[in-house]
Structures are given as structure tokens and as C-alpha cells.
Amino acid sequence: MDLVDKVQSGSIRGIARTISLIENNSPQKEDIIDELYPHTGNAMVWGITGPPGAGKSTLVDCLIKRERKQGRRVAVIAIDPSSPHSGGAILGDRVRMQKHSTDEGVYIRSMASRGHLGGVSVATGDAVKILDAARYDTIIIETIGVGQTEVEIIELCDIVLLVLVPGMGDEIQAMKAGVMEVGDIFVINKKNRDGADRLKTEVEYVLGIKNALTGEEPNPVLLASSKLDEGIDELVEAIHDYLKKAQATGRFEEKRRVRIEKEVLKIFSSKVHELLNIHLNIENNLGEWISSILNGETAPYKLIKSKLNRFVKENEII
Amino acid sequence: MAKTVRILVAKPGLDGHDRGAKYIARALKDAGYEVIYTGIRQTPESIVVTAIQEDVDFVGLSLLSGAHNELFPKVVELLREKDASDIIVFGGGVIPTEDIPFLKEKGIEAVFTQGTPIKEITDFIEKRLEK
User: Which residues contact B85 (CB under 8 A, 6 or more apart)?
Assistant: First the structure.
């Protein structure tokens, strides 16, 4: 049985192996993903993001429990950073979810960011497709602990939960662009700590300004304690409500359309890049190009334009 | 692109002494491997499921309670049952020297006792990958 069949039949080894192939950028990657593609699109993809130590993994643990209670099969992709020095990584998000390890309806996969900077890894999007084709109902992506700019998670998910904790800064932080803008639902975790209510008010205030401009319904801001398992039922209800509403208003389909658009453009760029790399033999010619810039024969834009023009003419593209 | 080596560092049994396991995990990270760490008090069943879900090449078991003769072989046995005998198992912790031949016979490929230089472990991993 080949890997594609194994994935579709739900074989854990098959799924795990296939994700590794994708992560290692195997030559089989593109065929596997294309073959699985028609079987994707059924799972709901939830993104969980927030700063390090906000309690994301513990929250995921609580969410798995609720989804399993509803009989849904759950897959989790938990991303941690790779070392910029050795390339190694410690993937420790599972520690908080390990009680689900022997539940056959739960698959958990730790992934290292492998140098990618968007809060996820390059392979995360394709790993979601594999898990979707393996018929998991809910796929949860937990990003690495994010700062202000790691927002790639919105391109992969139907809904994003931004997990915040009190004591990490004042209202000005909440006003800034970036991560604060990617949340569909805001979770104020560790709600029994001082400042949780104030943070909730601040976040609501900032969101209120945004919503006043766009005319959209206010995003839910919910207090929770994932460690004490409090406020989680309300959160799960809000998630399902949000998804239902998004489906009813067409926002859901629109998001998925944008996701495909971004993916197609990404593949296009990388393929064009690959192709031209080969045809212009950049590896061998680059030294010469740099020299011609250094000795004043040409300038960077001029040089690249002339190379591309020649490529187009020689191949009679125009 | 070369395959990145993935290693599960797991603590079976009931002892809560995880300094050794955490030290090994960090050292292996610094050696360039992706290390999955699962915390203390894991059953052989959960270790094996985790190893398969994470598609690891190696499982490193750490135990200080004395139950290694039962729990280490159990992990190897369950991996075989799940058709995953290609995953290589090694162990460490407080293991009396006289128990090592028995553990090796049961399929634990290497046993590293207290004070083993980390280089010995990475050498074992690299040599085993060549095979």
C-alpha cells in the first residue's frame, strides 16, 4: 500500500511518515500533496497563537478534551523553534497533552520551525492537508510563542485564537498592529491573576475602535484558565458559534479562497524562481554579475532586467 | 535535503527525577537533532504511540527507579507489535552494570549509565544512522 492510501485509511505510521517526507522536502512531496488534495477541505482548522508562556499548550489540551467529548477526531500540530546554531530543537509542547497520547482519536505531531520565521514551519500547511485527508475533524495548530509580527497562522486556519495573559504590557501594546490583529477570538488566560479583567477591558476597547470602522461584529474576548479548566466550555461554544456564523455569512468561504490564492502565488513564485535559476545558471554566473556591478559596467536593476529580457527573447516567449 | 534526525526522550516508570533526561534532551538539541520531550511518568504504551506519531528514529529512555528490566524491554516489545521495530531504542539512568547484557539481549541497543560523556551518545547515534 503506498503512502497516499495509508494516509487515507488513517494509518498512524503512514500519516507520520508522510509528514516527515514533507518536512524533509522529499522529491515525492508534490505528487503526494496533489493526490491527497481532492480529499481535503472537510476539517475545521483552528490556530492557537500568543506569546511564550501564555498557556497555549495547556489550552490545546483542554480543547482536545472538549472536542473528543463531542466525538470529533482531533489532530494537533505543535510548533517550537529550531536552534539557529545547531538546527536542533526541543519540542516540548506535548508534555501538556500527553494524557491524550493513547486515545486513538487524537494525533499529535511536534514540528520544529526549521528556520522559518512566521510562527509556523514551511511544512505546516501541507501537514494540515495530510491530516485533513486522514479525516481528522478538528485540526489544531499551535504556533511557536510569538512576539508581534508572526502572523502567518491566519493563512492556514479557519479561526485563530489569540491567547494573552495579564502583566505583559499596557494598552499601547494592545493597540499595535501585527499579532493583535490576527485573532478572531481573544482568550485572556490565567484569569485569576491580577490585571486579567483590566486586560480584557483594554482589548475590548481596542477591538471596539476597529469594529466601529469596519462595522463588523465585535470579536469575542473571553476569560479562561486552562490550568484550572475554567472558562473552556464558553470558549469552545464561542469557537463553534464563530465558525457557524462565518459559514452563514460567506466569510468562511472567502477566507478559504484567500488561502488558496496565497498558496498558488507562493508555489508560482518558488517555481518561477527555480526555473529561472536553472536557465540563467545563477550559481555559476553570479560572481561575474557582481564583478560587472563592482567595476561600474552596470547597475543591479539594469543587470537583472537585461538578463531577463534576453531569456524572454531567446525562448521566444514574447 | 537531508533528513533531520528525530529523537524521543522519554521517562517511563514512576520516578520523577528528570534532570538527566532534560540534560540529554538539551545536549542532543545542541548536537543538531530534533528532540521530542514528553515529561515524567510515561507508560510504555504512551511512549510507543508517541514515537510512532512523531516518526522518530530513536527512543531514549531514562529511568532511575530500578524498573528498567521490566519497562525498557516492554517498549521494544510494543514497538515490534506495532510494526515499528526500525525505531532504535537506547537507555540510561541508574542501571547496574550486570543488567546491561540482559537489556541488550532484549533489544535495547545501547545503555548509557551516569557520567557518560554526551559525545559517546552522539557517536552511537551517528554510527547507528550509517547502518
Answer: B76, B79
